[in-house]
């Protein structure tokens, strides 16, 4: 590439930056006007509202006046917010206006169009020509999908065909071209090398400039109702999913909003780690949650739920784990248990529903037995939820009758005497309504009615929420009073015993949480927000069959993107199947496999692929580094670990993760070295990721990358079972540049499966 070309390209960058500055100045001026307008509106809000509450018509007029003023304020604030967002986008564009260029000549046209691609679109001052195309625009797909030569892209109007004569990439920082090169079918190694060669960040990087062709298929997929993405460790599946969210929100920007998209993350730390990607692309963050927190919201505060990490910690730290608990995990993670729950729910149409007494001031107004009898008097063909609505209305009618009688009780007068002066004044005003020369109500009667109404209204709200249904007792009876006709596990008696014990303690094990929530929704009616149009689930391989079936039940019409890696299924103790293992796909379902690993060096990938649990092909990206090092140490002393940490820090490794098998092991190491070096321990309550030396269990490291990973005990005694394979593989594949494994004994047999030339033994 000639120097003249580089100068010409830099001149264009300078012209674009000048346009950006001019647009920013205009927006700043416009913003000042809106800001002053918003401030004035807030200050004078009540000055411009007509408040008159004397007559009903005046009240209506007042409400309309307040609403009009509030809508004006919201409109002004919204416009001001959009201007602020545009300024942020312009600031990002000024630093790096674009990262790609293609010269494309559409069939039938004489000249090729120079198309520059960046994170957002930018037009010239006349709003006639695109200086930059948004990477999500249809024409930009040419950059990701085709080498120079014949090419096509899809638009709303159909296919556009033509020829790419040039495909060029830029690395631009602070408005200066740092690198520029022409490339072929995929994003060139030079750009990837620079992006991947940097130190680990505390947040996930925006990869839009380095999206590969296979990742682009995920991002722009619009036809699949369920999209399964099987991606090996470090293949960029999570990054591609976030770019997919950004693409969909751009593609359907008039109808798709952040509240329409939900992302289930594996843990709170991971949610923090990925939180900056969408804002960097000019999109608001979507609704993020962990499945644990989602279930907690569903179940409510009356029951405590064991976290998946507590469940795994129990298994990993108990050499002789209770075999009944293990069978409980396996069975309640299966579709067989869902079939059992469904069968039990069917029998509740005939009998078996349990109800609570309706109590008012320690007085039973309607007993659970009365509610039971009324419920089962109703037509048995009516669904349970609809019958509960009918029961609720029946209870409320009885409460209204009770309310009329209760106002004359002594306790009511005692409450009346505690009312404020304002209440007495309002009651007095009501007594001034005169009909035929008589007061319609005495002041005391009005106050008594108000007191009783206040208390009964609280009870009615609870009835409308179906709190009269004893859902825990009804679920409990499935294990004690009901004889299943379906086949149950050998230890069904033991399973029922531990389940009922936990329910009495108001506790749900992790394997019981989704079944209980599903049971509750089937009985009470699920209250899922139907506005969710796209659901993204990361680390889907760690969801059980029951959990995934429950999600399908909750979101039957929602499009789903399911991301995972069968090699990293760390909950193999609890479930044997997951969505990624399904061979047959239904109509409108699609599977995309990402086999190339970009996170780790070629040497680390070539070592770890030999003990990967699955049969997936794993292809390393051509980035050189040191071979993994296996170091024999004395397990009883902490000095070898400290020595390795100091050496790695001297080499410039900013983020060093000591990844352990369990949280218990993490705590032991942390307590032994916290006085000697600066170190952070990460547990499931950690919500922010910091650079430095970290110690954490492998199940909290899912999806995150570190400059260096140290496995503090890679001995055969520590990773001794086949079930440990996914844990060990996951831990090793978190490393970007360096992988160090310490062992005081014979290395784990997983290491022995790798050829001797893939690692160094020190």
Structure description:
The chain is 44% helix and 18% strand. The longest helix has 41 residues, at 3-43. It has 26 helices and 28 strands. Strand 20 (596-597), helix 22 and strand 21 form a beta-alpha-beta unit. Strands 1, 2, 3, 4, 5, 6 and 7 form a seven-stranded mixed β-sheet that branches. With 762 residues, it is of the alpha/beta class. Mean pLDDT is 86; it is low at 436-440. Helix 12 (335-347) packs parallel to helix 20 (510-524).
Key attributes of the depicted protein:
seven-stranded parallel β-sheet; 26 helices; 28 strands; 44% helix; 762 residues; globular; alpha/beta; seven-stranded mixed β-sheet
Query: How many DSSP helices?
Result: 26
Strand content: 15-25%
Biggest β-sheet: count, sense, barrel? 7 strands, mixed
Q: What gyration radius follows from the Cα positions, in whole Å?
A: 32 Å
User: Average pLDDT across residues?
Assistant: 86
Indicate the low-confidence ranges by residue numbers: 436-440
Shape type: globular
- Helix content, binned percent: 40-55%
Structural class call reads alpha/beta
Distance between the termini: 46 Å
The count of DSSP E runs of length 2 or more, i.e. the number of strands, is: 28
């Amino acid at each position: 590439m000639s120097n003249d070309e580089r100068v010409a390209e830099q001149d264009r960058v300078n012209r674009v930056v000048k346009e950006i500055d001019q647009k920013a100045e205009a927006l700043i001026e416009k913003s000042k006007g809106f800001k002053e307008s918003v401030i004035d509106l807030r200050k004078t809000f009540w000055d411009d509202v007509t408040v008159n509450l004397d007559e009903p018509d005046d009240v209506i007029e007042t409400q309309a006046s307040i609403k009009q003023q509030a809508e004006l304020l919201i409109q002004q604030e919204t416009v001001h917010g959009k201007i602020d967002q545009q300024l942020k986008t312009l600031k990002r564009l000024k630093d790096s206006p674009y990262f790609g260029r293609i010269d494309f000549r559409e069939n039938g046209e004489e000249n090729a169009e120079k198309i520059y691609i960046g994170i957002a679109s930018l037009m010239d001052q006349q709003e006639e020509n695109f200086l930059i195309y948004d990477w999500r625009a249809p024409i930009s797909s040419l950059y990701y999908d085709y080498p120079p030569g014949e090419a096509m892209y899809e638009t709303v109007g159909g296919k556009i065909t033509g020829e790419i004569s040039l495909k060029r990439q830029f690395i631009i920082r602070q408005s200066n071209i740092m690198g520029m090169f022409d490339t072929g079918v995929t994003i060139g190694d030079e750009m990837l090398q620079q992006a991947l060669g940097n130190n680990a960040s505390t947040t996930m990087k925006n990869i839009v400039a380095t999206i590969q062709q296979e990742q682009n298929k995920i991002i722009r997929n619009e036809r699949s109702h369920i999209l399964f993405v099987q991606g090996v460790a470090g293949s960029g599946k999570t990054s591609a999913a976030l770019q997919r969210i950004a693409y969909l929100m751009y593609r359907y920007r008039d109808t798709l909003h952040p509240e329409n998209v939900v992302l289930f993350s594996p843990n709170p730390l991971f949610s923090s780690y990925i939180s900056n990607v969408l804002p960097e692309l000019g999109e608001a963050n979507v609704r993020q949650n962990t499945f644990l927190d989602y279930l907690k919201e569903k179940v409510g505060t009356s029951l405590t739920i064991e976290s998946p990490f507590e469940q795994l910690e129990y298994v990993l730290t108990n050499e002789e784990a209770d075999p009944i608990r293990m069978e409980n995990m396996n069975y309640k993670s299966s579709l067989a248990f869902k079939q059992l729950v469904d069968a039990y729910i069917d029998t509740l149409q005939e009998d078996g529903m349990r109800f609570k007494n309706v109590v008012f001031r320690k007085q039973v107004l309607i007993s659970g037995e009365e509610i039971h009898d009324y419920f089962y008097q109703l037509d048995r063909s009516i669904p349970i939820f609809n019958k509960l609505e009918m029961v609720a209305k029946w209870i409320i009618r009885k409460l209204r009758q009770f309310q009329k009688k209760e106002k004359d009780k002594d306790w009511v007068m005692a409450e009346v005497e505690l009312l404020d002066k304002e209440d007495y004044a309002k009651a007095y005003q009501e007594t001034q309504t005169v009909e035929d020369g008589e007061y319609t109500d005495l002041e005391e009667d009005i106050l008594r009615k108000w007191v009783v109404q206040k208390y009964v209204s609280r009870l009615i709200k609870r009835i409308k929420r179906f709190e009269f249904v004893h859902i825990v007792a009804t679920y409990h009876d499935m294990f004690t009073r009901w004889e299943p006709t379906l086949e149950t596990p050998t230890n069904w008696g033991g399973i029922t015993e531990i389940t009922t014990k936990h329910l009495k303690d108001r506790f749900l094990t992790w394997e019981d949480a989704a079944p209980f929530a599903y049971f509750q929704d089937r009985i009470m009616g699920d209250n899922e927000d139907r506005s969710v149009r796209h659901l993204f689930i990361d680390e889907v391989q760690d969801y059980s069959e029951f959990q995934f079936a429950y999600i399908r039940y909750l979101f039957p019409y929602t499009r789903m993107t399911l991301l995972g890696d069968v090699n990293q299924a760390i909950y193999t103790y609890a479930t044997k199947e997951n969505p990624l293992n399904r061979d047959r796909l239904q109509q409108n379902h699609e599977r995309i496999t990402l086999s190339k690993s970009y996170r780790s060096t070629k040497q680390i990938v070539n070592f770890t692929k030999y003990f990967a649990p699955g049969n997936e092909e794993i292809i390393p990206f051509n980035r050189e580094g040191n071979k993994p090092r296996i170091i024999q140490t004395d397990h009883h002393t902490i000095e070898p670990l400290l020595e390795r940490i100091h050496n790695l820090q001297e080499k410039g490794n900013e983020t060093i993760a000591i990844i352990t098998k369990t949280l218990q092991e993490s705590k032991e190491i942390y307590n032994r070295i916290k006085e000697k070096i600066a170190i952070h321990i990460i547990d499931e309550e950690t919500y922010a990721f910091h650079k430095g030396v970290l110690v954490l269990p492998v199940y909290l490291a899912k999806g995150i990358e570190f400059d260096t990973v140290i496995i503090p005990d890679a001995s055969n005694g520590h990773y001794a079972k086949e079930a440990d394979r996914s844990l060990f593989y996951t831990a090793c594949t978190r490393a970007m540049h360096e992988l160090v494994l310490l062992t005081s004994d014979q290395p784990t047999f997983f290491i022995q499966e790798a050829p001797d030339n893939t690692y160094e033994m020190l």
